[in-house]
Amino acid sequence: MATATAMPPRRRHAATGAAAGEWAAVSTSGEWRSEAIGKHQLVRRTGLSARDLRALDPALSYPSSVMGRDRAIVVNLDRVRAVITASEALVPGPRDPSVAPLVAELRARLAAASPAPPRAVSDGEAGKDGGVSPPRGGGGKVLPFEFRALEVCLEYACKSLEHETSMLEKEAYPALDALTSRVSTLNLEHVRQIKCRLVAISGGVHKVRDELEHLLDDDADMAAMHLSEKAAFQAASQSSRFDIGTELVEIDEDGDDDETEAEQGSMAFMPKIDELENLLEAYFVQIDGTLNKLSAQREYVEDTEDYINIMLDDKQNQLLQMGVVLSTVTLLITSAVVVTAVFGMNIHIALYRITDFNVFWEAVGGTLAGAATLFVVAMLYYWKNGILR
Description:
Largest sheet: 6 strands, antiparallel
Shape: rod-shaped
Number of helices: 11
Structural class: alpha+beta
Distance between the termini: 109 Å
């Protein structure tokens, strides 16, 4: 009798289809909660694509970016990662010590400037160009929620980089001055570590500055970040879709296609980007100032390296000059030794039969005087031709 093969139990996948990560959800009033949100849940919640979510993965080396999508803004600036919608800001890993201050700053800033709930915009409030006026609170204009959350992210990124730059500046200049006064292995290693940190911080500042510059140069990207106005515009468009459709049908019956296209083009979403542009320009100026500080530090490091190289070259030149002097002295002493060797040969000449002992000292003195004279002549020759200074 055949034994029935036991089928292994099928593995049940989670409803999200991916492992859920911990996210901090900060509302418009500044209240927050920690949620376990999976990848698929986040896609349905924010309308982002999987490619946009990969930009938030710290394990992947994606460049700094601020991307405006249909329902959300993806912020990836150095150590600041967040997803901002029209009603909440999502920050991954709120328990991370480097992320907790960002969540606290979001809570404090959003709670302090919480506007009134956004109201629906009627057809009469829509601009001629299809733009929608942002909500107003009190006597002045209040930035939409997504801009206030984006401002907190930009400010946190800029302040973090500026703080690292200031700390490096306090450490770099004394270390470079110490290396200038005394070149040692310890000072060289300290300066090498400072230079590595300088390169790393400069890379992060460059990425943030380039991204802000890219946003300021592209009006379409800035227009895509007006999430609240976009939602209000879509709501107003849906409420008046029947009237617009009736007008388009009547125009189509008359055969005027050009007027139909003009009517459809007039309904395009074209928000005013002045407020967002001013916001980005303010932080562009701030991050540009941080970059100027890093450039000044880099120039100081390069000037110190040039000075150290000049010092080492000068020491090497002094050693070479000493080598020339010692070689000349060695040559002349060798010449005197040759004379001594000649007189020390076992030969019979009349000079050896002289009984006056002073002749020996005369010969020794003459040899030494000749060597000294040749040494002086060689030094004068070196000095005249620039070999020695």
